[in-house]
Amino acid sequence: MNAVDRRVFVKAGGLALVALGVDPIFLTRAAYAVNRRTGSSARAKTLVCLFQRGAVDGLNMVVPHGDPFYYRERPRIAIPRPGANGGALNLDGHFGLHPALAPLQALYHNGSLAIVHAVGSPEDTRSHFDAQDYMETGTPGLKSTPDGWLNRYLGLRHAREHQDTPFRGVAIGPQLPRALRGAAPALAIDNLQAFGLRAPEPARDRLTQAFEELYQGSATGLVATSSEEAFEAVRMLKALNPRRYEPANGAQYPPGPLGRSLRQIAQLIKADLGMEIAFADVGGWDTHVNQGGSEGQLAARLTDFGSAIAAFTQDLGERMADVVVLTMSEFGRTVAENGNVGTDHGHATAMFVLGGGVKGGRVYGDWPTLDPAQRFEGRDLAVTTDFRDLFAEVLTGQLGVAELAAVFPGYTPVRRLGVLG
Amino acid sequence: MPVVPKSWFVAGSIFGAIAWGPAAARSAPQVQQSPADSVERARALHVLNRLTFGPRPGDVDRVVAMGVDRYIEQQLNPEKIRDDQVARHLARLKVLRTGPEDLARIYLEEQRARLERQRAAGPDSVADTRRMLPERQDVALSPARRLAGEFQQAAVVRATLSERQLYEVMADFWTNHFNVFLAKGADRFLMPEYIERTIRPNVLGRFEDLLVATAHSPAMLFYLDNVQSVTPGARPPQLERLERARRAMARGRPGRFPGRADPRQLDSLKARIEQRIPQGLNENYARELLELHTLGVDGGYTQQDVINAARILTGWSMTPPPQGARFVFNDWAHDRGEKVVVGRFFPAGRGEEEGEELLRFLARHPSTMRHVSAKLCARFVADDPPDGCIDAGVHAWERTGGDIPEVLRAIFQSPEFWAPAYRGAKVKTPLEFVVSAVRAVGGEPDTTLALAQVVSRLGQPLYLQPPPTGYPETQDSWVNSGALLERLNIALGIAAGRAPGAVVDAQALIPAWTDSYELADFVNRRVLNGTASLNTLRVMREQTADLPPDRARVVALGLALGSPEFQRQ
Description:
The structure holds two protein chains of two kinds. Chain A is α/β, with parallel strands linked by helices. Chain A folds into two domains: 1-35; 41-191 and 250-407, 3-Layer(aba) Sandwich (Alkaline Phosphatase, subunit A), CATH 3.40.720. Chain A has 13 helices and twelve strands. Chain A has helices at 3-20, 25-35, 58-61, 68-73, 102-109, 128-137, 149-161, 203-218, 221-240, 257-270, 297-316, 387-399, 404-407, and strands at 46-52, 62-63, 89-90, 96-97, 113-120, 169-172, 187-189, 277-282, 323-328, 349-355, 363-364, 385-386. In chain A, the strands form two sheets. In chain A, strands 1, 5, 6, 7, 8, 9, 10, 11 and 12 form a nine-stranded mixed β-sheet that branches. By secondary structure, chain B is an all-alpha fold. Chain B has a two-stranded antiparallel sheet. Chain B has a two-stranded antiparallel ribbon with strand order 3-4. In chain B, strands 5-6 form a two-stranded antiparallel ribbon. Classes of the chains: A alpha/beta, B mainly alpha. The interface between A and B is large, with 81 and 78 residues.
């Protein structure tokens, strides 16, 4: 269908649906379909969210080596002071990076990486399930929020700019995460190469074409608009030829899921498909047992984490000016190590913000200290920055969102950190 | 009209032809039907679309032959329907033969073993990254994971094969209404008991009994944190005994804790217990009870009502998993003060019984009748349920005290249920799509657990919806470009007989045809029950005309199951 046909169809179909009392959401989406930019869109600003599922130990990821209580509470797993064997990589005299995050050190010092410490949720839950849910809906304490905060952002933009590409919100993985679920369209892509119909060529092309004809002629409502988006996405990805992708600037992604995800996200960004939100999960942070110190279990996860992010930055090169990477985790871990040389579920943690407009080279947020009197419930790092303050600031700074109340309903940001712009 | 017109944008002149469906589109010879026949067939198809997980080949004829109304009555009385085939399939699933105690034991042992493995593995072992993604199936399943997979499969097997289709549709409805998330701690082993003994016995009973049953289920109480809701400052008797013993010890008298003569041991035991006792009121269950299970978000309650409902339910808990994770009422944790919930007064000094009274009061509240009837109408009639249908449900509820079959009968008899505008208008959920596709081609689940995984891939992993809202019923949640492409892949897979998890005999379904017109016509009649639009028939013909017979059959079937018509019911 060309644009004119589509417009006519939307008009007629829309009226028919109104007559039937069909959800107006279809009309809104149909309108996007009509006005959608096709092919070459301008360079979009992109926010890449990485969710460290399982609650990362923020205190060993970004080490408060200047806090005396740190070494007292972690006799077997503490990261030694900077300069010592296996010591933390000093950032500002008080904090240091875990030595496994060496690839990120240069990014901090050149000002593109900022860290927010003692950040987290105002809710006191120590359940992974509840805390992830709260962080992804953006409504801590409210379990029945139907959609995620990133989806609400996508919906907001829809209403304002009436333009869309199927790639505006993309999660790398088999399913949409809660943060991207909701009424606005978003795409879950497990593998760029396998996106579309799974059949050997040339049957694949022929079947794709057949289904496209089927949907152009027989589909109505939301099914019709979604199918248009789907076939357009298949065409765009085919043109992209993901099989032949070569990372730039000698970037080498580590093997493993995060490297694979970031490599595909880089590819989508460079292809100028209008992607504004990208999302990927990275797991393995629930280190109750044998967490290790400078080496060991957590160190292995951080090596993968740091080298994947560094490779992504290298691959994108100057294009990083349009990109912000935001990492998050549902909560942090206990200040004290436990009887199994690990850490249990805690409260505040640390998050990274990396990219173009980021005022990096600083650790943001008030440090509540690890003094037992200052701890949350006497045991965990207290939250001094509500995660929504950070998320809201990143949305505003990177994507120019003014209507924060629509993304974080019922919440007024408490303070500006100044991480972006 | 047999179907809602699917092609509004096609020129108006052929509108009528499409609206009257397949007859106008067919070129191959066919059986003549009287207009009365076709009206009856359309009614049968609508009932099969909504009261079942989709018609199997020949089902429309069977329902027409026995009478549509009689079929509805039969489905409302499932105990009279024989159901042997599904029983044979389910017999293979070990999870249904494993009692709650054994399930708990298997899970707890596995948890212990994992901890020991991590301890023994030393600091170089890599954390189990898959733990946070329970829906992913590993190649080698642990016994506990396998049981969870079996349990998901049981739901798909029942939906596909049971003759008691309405019962299974309603089991899915109530499972979703009273959602519990399988991957939250103890719910990993409590879920089978929750479904088999709490939900299923009450699927077509009285709403009140179903509500009371869910409120007593450890699965729900754990999922929504009521197990740790205690009146602020409450201390378990165990702790008080300990404190008395400690005081006695301090005064130099022998304690009543033999074997713990050392006061330091007593102190450390006390500290451990204190760390574990819950800190106060937890409103989660009470809030969802009012907002989702009964009154509805606009049902006229306040935050104070939530708090007071939570106070009434303090002490509704479960024993620790090693002691069976059974329902227990902890008297020590209960708030014995007076409370008011939505205008109802609960006097001071009462215990467990006021919780049950609250639940029955909520179940009979007019807001609950309206809220639950509206949800039923959203499931059976339209995403945005029409008032007439809701009213019909409410009246039946008032008349019968919330007898579920009576409420359903009233909805099925409402004019809105039969309104042409709503026929074929609801988009199938992933579960409905996958199951209806297997049923449409006369297939059945194979002996693996794969079919449930196909449903997961489409975004509806069963029993794994984290929020208490359950899976949404509306189309905007299920229709998006990625999910649509996945549906096409599944359609092609089922048609080709290479879909994981389903056994399909396409040749038996479409044995022979003379040309592509006849093939498209067969597929339209046998699989789509005559709902194919002109365009769909044309694409089916054009795409199969030059193909060898086996390939043509697969492509025609795949196009039918992947067609926009088949995404709706």
